[in-house]
Amino acid sequence: MDTVKVNQSLLKAVTSGQTQQVIQRLNEGCDVSVTDEEGRSPLMIAVQHNQLEIVKELLVFGADVNQRDNTQLTPFICAAANGFDEILNEILQSGRAELASVNRFGGTALLPSSEKGYLRTVQLCLTAGVPVDHVNRLGWSALLEAVILGNSGFLYQDVIRELVQHQANVAQVDGTGKNALMYAKETADEGLLAILEKKEVEAPIFKEVRAYLNNGDLQKALTILDAQDQTDLEVLYYLGYTHQRLKEFKTAITYYEKGWKKDQQFAFYIGNSYRMMGEIDKALQTYDHAIKTDQSFFYRYHKSNFLRELGRHEAAVKLMDDLLGDYPERVDFYFHKANSLRSLNRHQEAAEAMEQAIQLSPENPLFSEHLAQSLQLVKN
């Protein structure tokens, strides 16, 4: 028997989403830890393709949720970074996830999910015991990421509320000496400030709705919400979010579209819904529409995140250049630009981007390490 060929057949079956073929290959004794040229295990590939049933089968056969690919990413952190809550829950339920493990940027599973506003993922990570105050190599905790990279809307307030209720350190400062409260004061958003200062007086209805949502009692949450004034923006947000959790995406979008007529933040929720549906073009179009009327970094940055997830690095680099034109002091933007350039094998340009980051933050070893790696790739 050609063991290599047989093991490769498992990777092929996972990539094509053929669940029965995967089961057959596993029963035939295929190596569940076999990797492709990118160092991806069958479990990593299944996670990246959001293949819940295949993930379940691989876990039964002992797949390693902490196995790293060539970029040092694990299936556990990958699931969280993409907001694949059902898969993340299966991985956590296996009891095998290294909760304090980090990606190559020094971030736990909690950090990218907080950054991107994946509320359910954040809740699962916190409940499982992922460290709430861990700081990544950019100098940010999950709370700082949610405040700095969020838009202080309903969704991000929910993320931040969860972090604060799990005792996130509001006084923790980043490399610039600023903490979450200082950044929040720049937004002048009273609701966000109240959450961070632990002075929030929660409306009883929404407190009850959040409790049901946290417990997975989605129909009970809907019963309450359906009885409320559906011109209220917060009601529309929770109606959309609850239907989104139920995978009733078209209904969720209907509520979100009503909210978008009055508040720009709802464009983000619509874009996320299309993303979850696999309607990639509609998700990107939603971001583009929002960018036309919102001159802040928020939609451009999160569109660039999405483009990187899709492997569309050329477009991501152009968007980062646009952002850096408006925010030339943002070292994280240079860092993201450099990573996309490396993915495109444009290593000299990646090195130049890292040099810019080093000028702004010379004490951060992350940038020096990545500069050295890019320069070595230029030589090769």
UniProtKB/TrEMBL annotation:
InterPro entries: Ankyrin_rpt, Ankyrin_rpt-contain_sf, TPR-like_helical_dom_sf, TPR_rpt. The keyword Repeat applies. Keywords: ANK repeat, Repeat, TPR repeat. Coiled coil: none annotated. It holds the Pfam family TPR_16. ANK repeats lie at residues 38-70. It comes from Enterococcus moraviensis ATCC BAA-383. TPR repeats lie at residues 264-297, 331-364. PANTHER family: ANKYRIN REPEAT AND PROTEIN KINASE DOMAIN-CONTAINING PROTEIN, ANKYRIN REPEAT-CONTAINING PROTEIN-RELATED. This is Ankyrin repeat-containing protein.
